[in-house]
């Protein structure tokens, strides 16, 4: 398998990559703190925090399908829509789920786990992760 360069994937480097990872950390810390202030159940937080990673299972059907499902579970779009709905309807459970989901995405981004390319799990918008084969 041929390695893709940062230029080929459009992956950020240097200060831009660091800034994107710091944004992820800020999202994780902010949503976790907000959830704590919200006085949510920490058991629910732990269980739901891990839920988006169930999307890994989609890679069993191949890298293209895996990337689509993983990205759907790790993009800001759905949890931000959920948060908007939660605020509009004043539904605490919906808001809690959105905060936890965003915290998960934030930690993933802080650790360098970005959205995936079809080439394979290790090819992300934040750069290559995992072993170089």
Describe this structure in words.
The protein has a three-stranded antiparallel sheet with strand order 1-2-3, with helices on one face. The protein has one domain. Strand 1 (116-117) and strand 2 form a beta hairpin. The chain is mostly helical and 133 residues long. The relative contact order is 0.21. The chain is built from six helices and three strands.
List keywords for this structure.
mainly alpha; 6 helices
Question: Which quaternary structure do these chains form?
Answer: single chain
How far the N terminus sits from the C terminus, by CA atoms, comes to 8 Å
Tally of DSSP helical segments: 6
Helix content: 55-70%
Largest sheet: 3 strands, antiparallel
Strand order of the largest sheet: 1-2-3
Low-confidence stretches: none
Q: Radius of gyration, Cα only, in angstroms?
A: 16 Å
Tell me the total number of β-strands.
3
Mean pLDDT: 90
| Estimated structural class | mainly alpha
What is the total domain count? 1
Please state roughly what percent of the residues sit in beta strands, choosing from under 5%, 5-15%, 15-25%, 25-35%, 35-45% or over 45%.
5-15%
Shape: globular
Helix-strand pattern, N to C? HHHHHHEEE
